[in-house]
């Protein structure tokens, strides 16, 4: 039996499921697609997102960090 069912494993759904599970809820995370999608453009995380993930205890590997960007 699940306490919470989260529909959609996008960024918001994943964070919601993670936070609920961390607090002891039994969570079922559902996603329509079986695998993540290929994203041909350069994906990235904003500074605010990295800080939020850090507060949740989710680290970003050092090799993934970008400290400057010139366009």
- The percent range for helix content is 25-40%
Q: What is the number of E strands? A: 2
For the biggest β-sheet, the strand order reads 1-2
Gap from first CA to last CA? 50 Å
Strand portion: 5-15%
Task: Spell out the blueprint of helices and strands.
Blueprint: E1 4-7, H1 11-22, E2 27-30, H2 47-55
Descriptive terms for the model:
alpha+beta; two-stranded parallel ribbon; flat
Descriptive overview:
This protein has 71 residues and is of the alpha+beta class. It has a domain at 4-33 and 44-59. It is built from two helices and two strands. The protein has helices at residues 11-22, 47-55; strands at 4-7, 27-30. It has a two-stranded parallel ribbon. β1, α1 (11-22) and β2 form a beta-alpha-beta unit. The chain is flat and about 50 Å long. It starts with a strand and ends in a 16-residue tail after the last helix. The mean pLDDT is 85.
């Amino acid at each position: 039996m699940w306490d919470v069912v989260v529909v959609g494993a996008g960024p918001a759904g994943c964070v919601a499921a993670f936070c609920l599970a961390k607090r002891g809820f039994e969570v079922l995370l559902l996603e329509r697609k079986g695998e993540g999608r290929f994203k041909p453009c350069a994906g990235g995380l904003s500074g605010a997102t990295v800080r939020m993930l850090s507060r949740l205890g989710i680290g970003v590997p050092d090799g993934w960090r970008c400290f400057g960007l010139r366009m």
